[in-house]
Amino acid sequence: MLINCVAYQEGKKLADITVEAISDYIEIPGCFVWVALREPEAGELAVMKEEFGLHELAVEDAARGNQRPKIEEYGDSLFVVVRTVELVGDQIHEGELDIFVAHNYVLSARNNVNLGFLGVRARAEHEPHLLTMGSSFVLYALMDAVVDRYFPVVEMLEAELEQIEDRIFIKGSQRDSIERLYALKRKVLQLRHAVVPMLDALGKLHGGRVPMFCMDTQDYFRDVHDHLQRINSSIESIRDTIGTAIQVNLSMVTIDEGEVNKRLAAWAAIFAVFTAFAGVWGMNFEGMPELKTHWGYPCALAFMFSLSGYLYYRFRKSGWL
Questions:
Q1: Which residue from 138, 163, 205, 230 lies 20 to 30 Å from 147 (Cα-Cα)?
Q2: At 287, is the pLDDT very low, low, confident or very high (cuts 50, 70, 90)?
């Protein structure tokens, strides 16, 4: 679905134009066309391919979707794929933004993205001195908007991790904690899969050999790169903390099991007194003098209870019971 189709020149909006007029406007010196699509169908992409002269491999990737974040050069144009990450409740919703860009056009196509980018267009139009940089500034603004949406996700992950850490040492919460830690780990991996490939690819737009139409915006792309580095550092910190929390949680489970084993061993030792002496006196050999003693039975019980009581006292004192 077509969202916007606008022509700009020298940082100012010329007009909202029709799709059929795109090829005419991109021929005007100093003019570029910015088109935004949402969930584009194959027919729409085919029309854009003809109007802009897009490379067929880039169009094929955009039509297929589910691409890894990347920046690919096709002659004098770029094909950029960025993964969007949004919060839906406490879950992470992933989408994709495909951007075709050259010196005289920007074509963005979003798939499975709830939040639009109308704010990016409004921001660009309110800063004509920056929009004079042309299509490369629009590319920066779109990528910067996507990256800015990563920060609330990072904050949510950090807050959730803190909640889990507060419950790790509460007895009986180990199973719930380990389940929540692994669920959190999956969310962190979702965000990492969006950040790390883009962090590697973004180096093509600042420093070294960059496309000619991006020469004036290298500092802006470096700023996006810095934001991605900060996010990646936070992700790695969260991953390390999750790993430590999992180990601590497993250690707590082991400690609890050890405490149970100690209690079982202590009670087994106490009841072993009754078992041992009752087994000896229960043999009923004719020559056993204890069998004919008048006070033998109460004395035997008293001895067994006394010895068991002593063992209970010792185990209690040592912390086994």
A1: 163
A2: low
Among 86, 111, 128, the domain-final residue is 128
One-letter amino acid at 146 equals V
Domains identified in the chain, total number:
2
Residue 183, H or E segment: helix 174-201
- The domain boundary, picked from 128, 157, 172, lies at 128
Tokens for 85?
């990450």
| pTM to 2 decimal places | 0.79
Count Cβ atoms within 10 A of the Cβ of residue 162 and give its class: 0-12 exposed, 13-18 middle, 19 or more buried: exposed
CB count, 10 Å around CB of 75?
9
Residue-wise pLDDT for 163-190, tens only, equals: 888 887 777 777 788 888 889 999 999 9
Q: In the chain, which ranges are E strands? A: 2-9, 12-16, 31-38, 70-74, 77-88, 91-102, 105-111
Task: Give the chain's radius of gyration (CA, Å).
Answer: 35
Collect all residues with Cβ–Cβ distance below 8 Å to 108 and sequence separation of at least 6. Answer: 34, 35, 36, 37, 97, 98, 99, 100, 117, 142
Query: How does 293-305 read in b/e, with b if 16+ C-beta sit within 10 Å?
Result: eeeeeeebeeebe
